[in-house]
Structure formats: structure tokens, C-alpha cells
Amino acid sequence: MKKLWILAACLLLLTGCAQTAPQDTGWNLADTTPEAITTWPENEFTAQIPQPQAGTPDYVLDSTSNGHYAVFLRGISMEDSAAYVDLLKLQGYAEVAGEGNDVSVGTLLQKGQTCLSIAYTDGELGILITKK
Predict the structure, then answer these.
(1) CB of 119 closer than 8 Å to CB of 73
(2) What is the β-pairing status of strands 94-100 and 104-111?
(3) Is residue 128 predicted with pLDDT exceeding 70?
(4) Phi, psi of 69 (to 5 degrees)
(5) 76: Cα separation from own chain's centroid
(6) Residue 13 has pLDDT above 50, yes or no
């Protein structure tokens, strides 16, 4: 669970295109509680992206009233996570920023009014979906 919170923190660092005003520095998690899930959630946010074919849905952070929704999966390899990011790019998401090493990767993608902050490490994938 500790690794998942680290991924959540990484997602917060990547919320750059989610900013609506200069003073907006990202997503405040103070009012958000993790909700355990066993299936891929279906809502207006997840409808913007395909469901990853690898990994098991683990939990979500729901702040849809503030324009943010995050989905976390476990049991997914670095290679499968990288392939998922490549699929998103093929579907028209452009990479705005990215950083990675042998242990973890973070990338920021945007398509129209939808911004994706994706962080992954071996075994875990976090996807923050933000609608402007």
C-alpha cells in the first residue's frame, strides 16, 4: 500500500495541465479517500480512455466535483504499463512531459480537454484523469 501512496504523490506532481488558474497548484487530496474496487470503473472520466488489458483494478480517488479522477491498478509490469501509454499515444494523446528511470516512470498526456497524469513502477500503475 505504501508504494501506491507514492504513486498517488507522483500523480499530484504531474497535474500541470490540470491548472485552471496561475494560483492553482494541482489536486488537494485532503477531501479524497481511497475507495477499493475490483472492476474497472465506468464514468465520464474513464470513458475518455481505454481500460488497460493488464493489471487488476485496486482503488480510485474520486474528486469528480473538482474535475479529477484517479484509478490505480496492481499486478501490472513496467512493460505492460509502457505499452498502455503507447496505446494512449496511438489514440491521439500527446506527451506534454515525461520522466523515468529503471524503477519508475511518470508521464503527462493531453488530448483536447482531457489530461492524463500517469505514474508507474513494476507492479503498479496510477492514472489521474483531469478534465479542464
Answers:
(1) no
(2) antiparallel
(3) yes
(4) -150, 130
(5) 14
(6) no
Cβ atoms of 13 and 127 closer than 8 Å: no
**String of DSSP letters for 29-70:** GGG---EE-SS---STTGGGSPPPSSSEEEEEEEEGGGTEEE
Per residue in 63-107, pLDDT tens?
A: 998 899 999 999 999 999 999 999 999 999 999 999 989 899 999
Handedness of CA 51, 113, 89, 126 (dihedral sign): negative
Per-residue pLDDT, 79: 96
Q: Phi and psi dihedrals of 115, rounded to 5? A: -120, 135
The rounded distance, in Å, linking the Cα atoms of 38 and 59 is 8
d(CA 88, CA 36) in angstroms, rounded, equals 25
Q: 58 and 73 in contact (C-beta within 8 Å)?
A: yes
Q: Give the CA distances from residue 88 to residues 36, 46, 49, 61, 127, in Å, rounded to whole numbers and listed in that order.
A: 25, 13, 7, 21, 12
pLDDT tens-place string over residues 97-117: 999 898 999 999 999 999 999
